[in-house]
Amino acid sequence: MDKYEIEQTLRDYHWMVREIARLRDMLSDAGERVVRNYEGLDMPKPQGRRSDPVSLEASRRERLWRKLQNYEQKVKFVQERMDVIEDEREKTVLDCLLDGMSLRSIAEHLGLSRRHVQNIKERIVEQFCSRKQCG
Fold this sequence. Notes:
This protein is mostly helical. It has one domain (3-41, 52-131). It is 72% helix and 0% strand. The protein has helices spanning 3-28, 32-36, 53-81, 88-98, 103-110, 114-131. α5 crosses α6. The model has no long low-confidence stretch (mean pLDDT 86).
């Protein structure tokens, strides 16, 4: 990951964690309801493109599975590097970022300027990069 991707991951972390939970829950259901709806019906033969609802659902779930793996990889990247941050103020800013707070709201919360919080965030990104070479 380069610095921009790390910043984006920190910004998106809070919703990615919720989306991972939603996707895991949804993908744990193998689609029995979709299959059950079409049992015993004579389905028309496909002409031209794929129109089988079960096949289309399988394709959709495959795309969701890839999305889930991507989100898990990004979240794991952050979680594995959280212990690198040792300064208490940086830890607080990181926690606030991971909770989905904006830089402005973090600045108000900590009584700092927005620019100062931006500098702290940049130091966090630098520390995340120091463990792994970044572009």
